[in-house]
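Open question from group meeting: does this chain pack into something compact, or does most of it stay loose? Before anyone orders reagents, we agreed to write out a predicted structure and look at it together. Recording both the input and the output here so the notebook holds the full record.
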Amino acid sequence: MIKEEILHLAQAYFAEVRDYRRHLHQHPELSFHEYETAKYIAAFLQKEGIPFEDNWVKTGLVATIEGNNPGKKTIALRADIDALPIKELTGAAYASKNEGAMHACGHDVHTACLLGAALILNDTREQWEGTVKLIFQPGEEQLPGGASQMIAEGLFEKHPATAIFGQHVMPELEAGKVGFRKGMYMAACDELYLTVSGKGGHGAMPHKATDPILVSAHIVVALQQIVSRRANALLPTVLSIGHIEGKGATNVIPEKVEMQGTLRTYDELQRQEAHQQIKDLCSGLAQSMGAHCEVKIIKGYPPVNNHPQLTERAITFARELLGNENVVPLEMRPTGEDFAFYNQVMPGCFFRLGTGNIAKGITASVHSPHFDIDEEALKTGMAIMSFLAVSELSAD
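C-alpha cells returned:
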C-alpha cells in the first residue's frame, strides 16, 4: 500500500533530509534575497531529475512530478524559503553562519520536508495518478509576501492546480503530531505607523509646548477602545503598539513621537471599519490636545481561511497515516501567513507540524533566537505532505 511505502521512504530518507535541513539552517537568507537557497534547491531538483522552473519573483521555484495519467488532477504543495533578521543563540553545531539571519520560523524545516516529499513522490510516481506541483516560495516574512507576487506573475495560469497544502512548524505541539483547523484559522495582519507632531520645549515649562509624548500616551490607551468597545465581540481583534520613539531627554519635550504597531482581525468588514476608526480616533484625539497625528496603515496578509471540505479530507488522510492520537484540533491564532493568498484563488489547507519535545528541552517559540526543532519531525513532515498529495489526487 502507498501509505506503508511513504512511511518506509520517510524513514529511509530521514538522514538525507536532516542534512538538507541543517544546511539550510546554517545558510539562512532574508526575504526576497534567497539566492543561494534557490541554487541549493535547483541543484537538488537537477540531481533527482525533477523538472522545474526558477526565477519566480527572482528566487522562487516550481517543480513538477507526474504520476500515471498526469492530466487527471493536480495538487500543489508549498514551502516558504526565507529566514528572519534574528541573531541565533541556540549554540547548535548547525547554527546560522550568516550573521543577523536565522531560520527562527522553521522555513528551513518546511523546505527540507518538501525536498523529502519530492524524493518520496518521485520514487512512488508509478503508484498514483495525477500531477504534484512543488512550490518553493520566497518572501513569506515580508510584505507584500511572496505568495501574492508569485500569483501576480501568473503562477496558477501556468501551473493550474485544484487544491494546495502548506505546513508550518509548531513547537507547542510534540514532534510526530500534526494539527488542523477547518475554516477561519489565522488573522489578517496590518502594520500601523503613527506620527504625533506637537511643539517641543523645555521639560520644566510644558505650558509653552505641545507635548507629543503625552498625546501619544493617550492615543495608545484610547486605541484599545477599538478592541474592547467597537469590535464585534464574537470576532477576536488584536491591536498592539510595539514601538514608541520620542527623541527628547530628561528636560526636553520633543517635537514628535513615532509609533509602530499591528492590527489583527478575522473579518474583512471589521478590518476595514477598524482602519477608519484608528484614523479618526488618532487624528481627533491629537487635535483635541493641540497636536497632529499622521496615520499610515499598510494592509498586510488576509486571513487564512481553510477550505472546510478539503481540510476535513486532510484530517481523515492524516489520521489514516499517523493515527487518531497524532492528529489534533487547533485553535484560531492571531498570527498572519501569506498562504492566505493561495486560499483566495483555490481550495487550500494550511496545517501545523509538531516540532517540540519537552523531554529534550526543545520548547522555544518561533521567532525566538533559541528556536530549534526535534528533527524527528522531519519524518512526519515529508510523509504527511506526500500522503496528503497522493490521497487528494485520488479523492472524488
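Observations to bring back to the group:
Residues 337 and 381 are 19 Å apart (CA to CA).
The domain at 2-186+303-394 is CATH 3.40.630.10 (Aminopeptidase).
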